[in-house]
Design brief:
5-stranded antiparallel β-sheet, globular
Length: 276
């Protein structure tokens, strides 16, 4: 049995709550990831406009600014019977299609902290580098959920959720494996080696190296910089974001409230900017 992170691939429609048009900006959706922490929102939900920034080839799942999944009407109809009571479908406005943000209210103590690899700050879990889930839980009752230690992060799904999406011929979904209950120590070692190779590849890229102050100026000028597993840039909204390279090759992005002191002494080089 596997547990997955679900996201939208490059064929999907892209939407945003950001607009340079001041009149449109007044009506765009004001919610952010900090609002989605596993609590019910339907009684206080205020819909807003999500602007289409890319038409895409499918609207079954769409790219949204944050970590919260955004589904189209077709996906909602198909998946709702499986996850009824575990999520709230919150309607948003869009000129091209009917869209719903998926507020996952099913939060369970499924993360095995003794075996997972994670980082903390002031005693609070900040990022999970490697997920290990408790095998004794009956995940057939939890096809989509959030973990109690990170209710504000992205939700995860099980094979039941993924299989339904794939068998229904819904388009645009990308599933990233987080945990396999049959994952052996040998397989874990191979994954660690792959992760190290990805980090080494980033560090081996040619080009001048910059100190922290120089890197900050480059970021402010619109560049992205990297060192090892870390990548720094401005988002499309002009917000400073920090990414951490995962074994999958994807970056996990956050808007940091502080800069880890260890990053200040590193040397940085320019790298291709991510579409964030």
């Amino acid at each position: 049995m596997k547990i997955w992170k679900v996201t939208a691939d490059n064929s999907s429609m892209g939407v945003t709550s950001y607009s340079k048009d001041q009149n449109l900006e007044k009506t765009t959706l004001k919610t952010t990831d900090v609002d989605f922490t596993g609590e019910s929102m339907k009684h206080r939900w205020e819909s807003g406009l999500l602007l289409t920034r890319r038409k895409g080839r499918t609207k079954d799942i769409v790219h949204f600014d944050g970590l919260t999944p955004c589904f189209g009407q077709k996906t909602k109809k198909i998946i709702e019977p499986l996850i009824d009571g575990l999520v709230e479908f919150l309607p948003v406005q869009n000129n091209d299609t009917d869209l719903y943000l998926v507020n996952v209210i099913n939060v369970i103590d499924a993360l095995d902290l003794e075996k997972s690899d994670y980082s903390t700050f002031e005693g609070r879990l900040m990022h999970i580098n490697e997920y290990v889930f408790k095998p004794e839980i009956d995940y057939s009752q939890h096809p989509i959920f959030k973990v109690t230690q990170r209710p504000g992060s992205f939700p995860v799904v099980t094979d039941d959720f993924r299989n339904l999406i794939l068998s229904s011929n819904l388009k645009g979904f990308e599933f990233i494996e987080l945990w396999d209950s049959e994952f052996s120590d040998e397989m874990k070692h191979e994954l660690e080696q792959k992760h190290k190779a990805l980090i080494d590849l980033v560090d081996s890229l040619p080009g001048r190296r910059f100190n922290w102050n120089e890197a900050v100026k480059l970021i402010e000028a619109g560049e992205a910089v990297a060192n090892g597993k870390w990548k720094l840039q401005l988002s499309k909204k002009g917000v400073f974001i920090m990414g951490q390279l995962e074994p999958s090759g994807e970056y996990f992005w956050v808007q940091p409230t502080y800069i880890p002191p260890t990053l200040l002494g590193k040397s940085w080089h320019i790298i291709e900017k991510s579409d964030k």
